[in-house]
Design brief:
Layout (H helix, E strand, L loop, with lengths): L7 H5 L7 E3 L3 H10 L3 E3 L6 H10 L3 E3 L5
Parallel strand pairs: 1-2, 2-3
Family: Belongs to the UDP-glycosyltransferase family.
Organism: Gulo gulo
EC number: 2.4.1.17
Length: 68
């Protein structure tokens, strides 16, 4: 699902939301953590690979590596 940025908090705050699939940018991490939603990260470039490593170490995410 592709959504408007302003709708993200209502979706992440919905009681039926189980996980957040994202690119692991800083804002995505803050938003998911704020709502207590686990993440499925798909880091591609720049800082997201480092970001997902830290979040995985805390047990709040799993990573899907598309670049092998």
């Amino acid at each position: 699902i592709i959504i408007n940025f302003s709708e993200i908090h209502s979706i992440l705050g919905h009681p039926k939301t189980k996980a957040f699939i994202n690119h692991c940018g800083t804002n995505c991490i803050y938003e998911a953590n704020y709502h207590g939603i686990p993440m499925v990260g798909i880091p591609l470039f720049a800082d997201p690979p480092d970001n997902i490593a830290h979040i995985k170490a805390k047990g709040a995410a799993i990573s899907l590596n598309l670049i092998q």
